[in-house]
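Annotators were shown the component list below and the corresponding predicted structure, then asked to write short factual statements about the assembly.
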Amino acid sequence: MAGVPGRPAADGVDPETITAYVAQQWPDARPTVCHEVSGRHAVVSSPVDPRSIRPGGFVSGPSLFGLADLALWFATFGAIGLEAMALTSELSIRFVRPAIGDTLWARADLSSVGRKNVVGSVVIWTDDPDRPTAVCQGTYVVPPRATETEEHREHRER
Amino acid sequence: MAGVPGRPAADGVDPETITAYVAQQWPDARPTVCHEVSGRHAVVSSPVDPRSIRPGGFVSGPSLFGLADLALWFATFGAIGLEAMALTSELSIRFVRPAIGDTLWARADLSSVGRKNVVGSVVIWTDDPDRPTAVCQGTYVVPPRATETEEHREHRER
Amino acid sequence: MAGVPGRPAADGVDPETITAYVAQQWPDARPTVCHEVSGRHAVVSSPVDPRSIRPGGFVSGPSLFGLADLALWFATFGAIGLEAMALTSELSIRFVRPAIGDTLWARADLSSVGRKNVVGSVVIWTDDPDRPTAVCQGTYVVPPRATETEEHREHRER
Amino acid sequence: MAGVPGRPAADGVDPETITAYVAQQWPDARPTVCHEVSGRHAVVSSPVDPRSIRPGGFVSGPSLFGLADLALWFATFGAIGLEAMALTSELSIRFVRPAIGDTLWARADLSSVGRKNVVGSVVIWTDDPDRPTAVCQGTYVVPPRATETEEHREHRER
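Structure shown to annotators:
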């Protein structure tokens, strides 16, 4: 996005740690894999759950929403660290083409990383990222950390 | 909502037909029940899927999104009939309080019923509708019907 | 909206005080009039600014957005009082029909009034509220009040 | 954005033609300048209208919304040509920091360019694009062209 230079992910955050963290938190969920993460983006994939297929062979909207939410969460990990229990505040999604395929891909790009909120956009596709099935934008709220000093917060905001 | 008088549901649409229709379309889904439907609203409930509980005991965001999407779809049935294969075009959701409970409730109110689009708002709660867990607004696109004449379309718009 | 009983507006808030307050804050703005306000809704009107007419005779999108934002702000006054300097956090708008006319009307209904956030929906129309030109939903953030005790905050949330 | 390679703007579309086109369509509007345009993005700037300054010195939300809407429109020109009378269908905006300054900047990036709809994200800032004041996402609807053959439409979609 505009004016956002490449930034390394937060300390200790890489695709493997994110994938393992989520598998541990939700052992029953579909195996979601983090392929890329930086301080401003994440790329993830997830096999399509057969139960989420709708008549016509399309992946359901809530499944796409769920992956978008996850991709934005992973990008938030990249920006501010795994320990930050950020929560989705709001998310708006546009369904632009039918989702047909075995694997869903999503890329989240952060446009704003502030002290209290992270805002980013997500593109979801099955076989061609230039022909997405859904496009989202949303906000994660970052709870204040009890142990954090004002100085740290200022630093994080920059 | 503003200026929208009570309107009867479309011909042949009542809570029982909607509940039966959805159970038939998605036999694997959680049993969602339609309690009320008119030409401008629907009220639904769904038992919480234990797999959708997140750490802290909260129902996951994608589950709330899924129910909101369904409630808006049911209200669209009420406005234009069961046979209309309306598709979600876009939906924005705000998560306002943690969702804790065994049953999710949702009420969708339509603000605009046009020839091509239906727009409505949804409130989701567990035990108190005045303290919702999520609030949504979104658009369903109504595909043109091959057998429909211009005259019918005009009629439907009114 | 669902389960929201009629509630009186906050102390000292009525249509006249809101109209006067806004006229004083933005003396250069188009005269916006508050017609109704309660603890959960507001109805406003504003004459169309000729500069906001676009080719075809349509009122511009940003003008509709501006009135929606204002209507939601007025409803927030009704819920928590005039002195609360609530700020728009996010707003999503759907343009559903061309806006043609001399006067814009908007009705905002609040779905959630919490300690920190107020969420509501807005319908905008020119001559028929059942055929709106735009439909919105958004969030106002309520800043913490320095003089407020925890007890008061709790009370306000209910 | 993900997987979107650089693409040239549509025939006859460059920053100068867009700037001149808009100045001609809205002679009364603030002079908005298009600085960059391609088949997938646009960068614009606009001087802040003093009437849009709110108490505290902040640029009003509707002004930011207006520029976002314009930036997305310009990017749509880049994708499908100046003659396409695309209309905003829906737009969601997040206000992330106070907007203080004399000039507003906006960059729109398109995530999906389809036959009927264009979806993109916009970042708005005053002095630092990495610390935006607002972040948006929205949809423009592209009306069918009477003179266009199916073949042309297919081509445009790719």
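Statements collected:
1. Confidence is low (pLDDT under 50) at residues 146-158 of chain A.
2. Chain A touches chain C through three residues (CB under 8 Å).
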